[in-house]
Each structure stands twice: as structure tokens, then as C-alpha cells.
Amino acid sequence: MASKKTLTAENLEALGAKRLAELLMDIAEDDAAVKRRLRLELAAREAPESVAAEVRKRLAQIARARSFVDWRRLRDLAADLEMQRRTIVDQVARTDPAEALELMWRFMGLAESVHERCDDSNGVISDVFRGACCDLGPLAELAKPDPVALADRVFEALNENGYGQYDHLIETLAPALGSQGLDHLKARLVELSRMPVARPREGQRKVIGWGSGGPLYEDEIRAHSRESTIRFALREIADAQDDVDAFIAQYDEKTRRVPNIAADIARRLLAAGRAEEALRTIEAAEHRRGGWPNFDWEDARIETLDALGRRDEAQAARWSCFERTLSAEHLRAYLKRLPDFDDVEAETRALDHAERYASLLQALAFFISWPALDRASRLVIRRAGELDGDHYEILSPAADALAGKHPLAATLMLRAMIDFTLAKARSSRYRHAARHFLECASLASSIADYGAFETHESYAARLKAEHGRKSGFWSLIP
């Protein structure tokens, strides 16, 4: 049972309404965000329709602000924006969906100015606006605006998408737009694509950067950006209307041969029941056979072969992906489709292949994830001289996984990380290296035979002889 001092809703309720009100007033005195939240709650209780006015007033204040928001205040701004967004969705929409939709459009209109006056390198502000963009769809379905008017608003928004806040606008609004709105939006985009971008006279063109081909002009960048916006939007409309041919039309012949683009097109053709065309698209892609695979292309090809009933070729493709990269996902899919008992033999063959794989670290990661810990242990002991202690992201979890039943292999990986850290004098890793050293000491009692490797005592003595002056490390060893 929780202590009476624990901060829970039940314990706070016991303080009584009067005391809680006094505490909230004290907190709100020094916290503007809390004060705004309380005002919204009071407005919602007294007159629900007045909540929209409170939100509108706050959005206007944010729009007028010009001061730069540094990293210390960034999360406060994000929290304020998120509170306004939630209020629109949870409270205003309940009583007036049309007003809620209008407020969310106003909210989205803040994106440019807010981004311009803060450093959003961690994406906190962007996340809020992306969430608000997704809210527009459900709000529009509730408000049921005129589809053509909505399409016009979407068109304007797409041309003011400097920070990607409207990237999923068509997708979220497609149900509300319907075929009438989507057709109108498509017509406006096609019309825009036919209009030339105004180009200044040669002497008046503004250079905004330099590339391998020379100067980058502002008008060229603007034209390229507009073209990308139109093509992206037309692809979104094509998806919303299940028009695979319209989607394909947004790519020229050369671009359709890019493996990832070919995979996107092929999947849409498959969904439309056009598997033969999907395979032709996949096969026409400029994909280098052999070597490291493009999994998006490979998987689309496998899906297409399956759809065409060419099971043996699909299985061969799965095995090829595994063979080249030790992809556990492709091996599992391969084994799943084999008859009973055949899968056991095939798994043994796959694990034998992994033990012979050129990259020790890749093979080790595969065995740990499969899992095949006995194989992983054997691999580490056989190829201990190849262990690269810089790859702690693989060795550390592998050592943890093997410590219980394979302490020697775990010790060798821990030593590799210690040796690298001390040899390279990576002082930032000394704390981890010291922990690894203590783990080696703990594992020593479980190792009956070190074989060709040093005992822990010999290893510790050598480490002291070679790196005894690295006091930053030794001071961490009890």
C-alpha cells in the first residue's frame, strides 16, 4: 500500500478542495503555463464555448512573439503549444467542430514563425506540429467543410511547407476531401506545374550557395522546391484515389529504375492485382546483383514472386539475402516455408555458413540474436585475435548473453574492449573498462580451463605492466 506521503491523486484529494486551490494559486503565481491551464479549465467549466476564445487569444500572442527561444525555454514553448493543441481537440471540438477545425488551421499557421525563432534540432517543436497536422483530418470529418474550399486551403498550405509541417496533410485530409476535393486539388496542382517560375534578369539573380556545378541561384532552388512539392502532392493524391498509374506518372523513366522507387511502384502494382507489371518494374531497376542487397528492393521482389506463385525463386531470393548479410529476418522467412524436418537441416546449413562468414562481428551479432550461443562462443574463441574492442555496441550485449554458460568467450570480449580503451587512452570509457575488468574477475572462478589464453591473474598483471600509469582507470578498480 502506498505511503500517505506518496504523490498520488488519492493522497492529494485528501488535502481537501480549499487547500488544493491555495496550492495551485501559489504554483500559478510563478508559472505562466500553469496559470493558462487553470484559466482554460475554469472557462471550460463556466462556459464551454468561451474556451475557443481563450485558445484564439493565446495563439495570437504566440504569433506576435518575436524573441528567440533558446534551449532552456524550448520545452516550455513545446508544452504550451501542446496544451493549446490538446484543448482544441479535447474541448473545443466537443462543442463546435467547425470552430475547432478553424483554430487548428490557425495553430498550423504558427509553424513557420515559431520555427524561425527557435533551434528545434531535437525536433520537439516539429513533433507538436506534426501531431496537429494529423488532427486536421478527424476534425475535418467532424466539421464537414465544403470539399472544394478545403482543397483550396490544402493547396495554400502545401505552398507554405517550409518546415515539413504539412508533409502528411493530404493523407490525413483525404477522407474529408473525398473525390471532389481531391480532383479539385489535383487540378490546381497541375495548373501550378504549368506556370513558369519568375526568373530575374541575369545580373539580378541572387546566389545563395555553391555546388559542384557552380553557383546555386535562389530562383532555381525555388523552382526545384515547387516541382518537388507538386510531385509529392500528386503522388499522395494518387495513393488516396488508389490510382497507381497516376502515381507512376510522377516519376520519369530514369527515376523509376532507382531500386527504392521501383519497390514503391511494384508494391502499388501488387495491391492493384498487377503482379506481372510489378515484376517488370522490379527487374528493370538498376540494382546491382550480388554484394550487399537493397532490402527494400529485395523484399518487393520476393513479394512479387510469391504473388506470381514462383515460390522456388522467392525462396532462393530469401536465402540469397541471408547468405550475403546474415539477415535473421530472411532466414526465418525461408525456414518457415520449408516442409517439416527440412527446416532443421536447412537451419544447420545456415548456422554453418554463419560460422564461416567473413565478418566476425556480423556473425557474432547474428548468433546472439538467433540465438545460437554455443556457436557464438565457439566463434569468439576460435577468432579471438580478430575482436575489435571499439565495437562495444556488439561486444557488450554479446558478453552479457554468453556470461552465464560461456564465461571464457564472454571474458575474451570484455578483454577486447578493455584493451582497446587503454591502448587508445579513451578516458571517457575508463568507467566502462573498469566495470568490464571487474566482470572478468567475477567470471574467472567459472572458467576451469583458459586453454591458450591468459588466466585472469596473468592478464591483470600484463595490464598493470603496460598501462600502470593510467591512474584514471586504476583508480576505479577497488
Quick overview:
With 478 residues, the protein is mostly helical. It has helices at residues 9-13, 17-29, 32-46, 50-64, 71-95, 97-108, 111-116, 124-143, 147-158, 169-193, 218-240, 244-249, 253-256, 259-271, 275-284, 295-307, 311-325, 328-336, 342-355, 360-369, 373-382, 392-402, 407-423, 430-444, 456-467, 471-474, and strands spanning 207-211, 214-217.
Structure in words:
This protein has a domain of 121 residues. Helix content is 70%, strand content 2%. It has 26 helices and 2 strands. The chain has a two-stranded antiparallel ribbon. Helix 3 runs antiparallel to helix 4, helix 15 packs antiparallel against helix 16 and helix 22 packs antiparallel against helix 23.
What does the largest sheet look like?
Answer: 2 strands, antiparallel
Task: Outline the low-pLDDT stretches.
Answer: none
- What is the strand content? under 5%
Tell how many strands the DSSP assignment holds.
2
Whole-angstrom Rg: 31 Å
Averaged pLDDT: 91
First and last CA, distance:
39 Å
Helix content: 55-70%
Placed side by side, the strands forming the largest sheet appear as: 1-2
What order do the helices and strands follow? HHHHHHHHHHEEHHHHHHHHHHHHHHHH
How many DSSP H or I helices? 26
Shape: globular
Structural class: mainly alpha
